[in-house]
Write a structure and sequence with these properties.
Length: about 240
């Protein structure tokens, strides 16, 4: 399978591995040796490059991409003007990837209007996946922070899942609640990144990529898949699917 599917008028070019997709179901992938891996199926339709930011104009270098179909009534006027000014369609999601390669700025980007699809990744690649985690609502300290709770005996009746003392006496922090005190509160629905996941399979014909393990979010959550820091798309190289 070719890894160079960054298509534009000048042909494939070298760039960082980055794509937006939506989380699908989980499944099991078996290797030729009979090993089984839990995997998440991510549907990543081709992304379109909508803007190239430069250090001279924006103060930093980055590539902005759009993904997903929507209609004009579901986007704000700022995004509508941004895409219409470049004769592009509107997108469900627009994200950007800073231009860094191992900490060194990299200004090698495709042209605006170019497409990026799942074949920029290959089997065995290490990736980082970021998404918004599932919202858990208001939770106590046992579930939210992993507290063990109080003793289950010796006269303890209603304190199995209580947080216990927060040390709010005058001897600590002047009688106020210390900053960062772990207490009950809203849990989840925040950006979570999972590193060092492996690409198990890539299917350009169906725009699917299978990644080892679980990724944050519910089904349909927009996820960012990016190669390990310093990982770039090399022209002419290829790997086979599992």
């Amino acid at each position: 399978m070719s890894r160079s599917l960054l298509a534009h008028a000048g042909g494939p070019i070298e760039t960082m591995k980055f794509i937006l997709g939506t989380k699908g179901k989980m499944t099991t992938v078996y290797t030729a040796e009979g090993m089984a891996f839990a995997a998440t199926v991510i549907n990543a339709t081709p992304n379109l490059v909508t803007q190239i930011k430069t250090a001279e104009k924006e103060g930093y270098a980055a590539m902005q991409v759009g993904a997903g179909d929507t209609t004009n009534k579901h986007v704000n006027k700022a995004q509508l003007g941004h895409t219409n000014g470049k004769a592009l369609k509107v997108f469900r999601e627009m994200r950007q990837r800073p231009a860094t390669r191992g900490g060194t700025p990299d200004t090698t980007f495709p042209e605006v209007g170019s497409t990026i699809d799942v074949s920029v990744f290959a089997v065995g690649d290490k990736v980082t996946v970021s998404a918004i985690s599932k919202g858990r609502g208001f939770q106590g300290v046992v579930k939210r922070h992993g507290f063990h709770g109080g003793p289950r005996s010796h006269g303890q009746k209603h304190s199995e899942r209580s947080p216990g003392s927060i040390g709010g006496g005058g001897g600590r922090a002047g009688g106020r609640v210390a900053k960062g005190m772990r207490m009950a509160g809203r849990m989840g629905q925040e950006r979570v990144s999972v590193r060092n996941l492996s690409v198990l399979q890539v299917h350009p014909e169906t725009n699917e990529i299978l990644i080892s393990g679980a990724v944050p979010g519910r089904k349909g959550t927009v996820v960012e898949i990016r190669g390990a820091q310093g990982s770039t798309l090399a022209q002419g190289s290829s790997r086979s699917n599992l």
